[in-house]
Amino acid sequence: xxxxxxxxxxxxxxxxxxxxxxxxxxxxxxxxxxxxxxxxxxxxxxxxxxxxxxxxxxxxxxxxxxxxxxxxxxxxxxxxxxxxxxxxxxxxxxxxxxxxxxxxxxxxxxxxxx
Length: 114
Prior knowledge:
Number of domains: 1
CATH architecture: 3-Layer(aba) Sandwich
Number of strands: 5
CATH topology: Trna Endonuclease, Chain: A, domain 1
Order of helices and strands: HEEEHEE
Low-confidence stretches: none
Helix content: 25-40%
Largest sheet: 5 strands, mixed
Shape: globular
Distance between the termini: 35 Å
Strand content: 35-45%
Structural class: alpha+beta
Strand order of the largest sheet: 1-2-3-4-5
């Protein structure tokens, strides 16, 4: 199967986001974690807080900044995935939802985004 440029851009963005989080002291638990048809780009620990991270990467901001593409449907999907994750791994009490927006080579991290 041929990979398109959008997929490659997304994969590169997720790798950059993962490296960024590691440099900030996060521990990466999972990347591209799937539950049924739902997916979390990154699940990490920030000290004792479990963080679900949505990564949005764009090469241009012609249609808006990357973080604007995390819509209500995506937020609901991530929250549903988190609920099921916590049933499977009930050891975490503090959770947070972050967004990492990557535009060209600039990374912006929105902690507790929703």
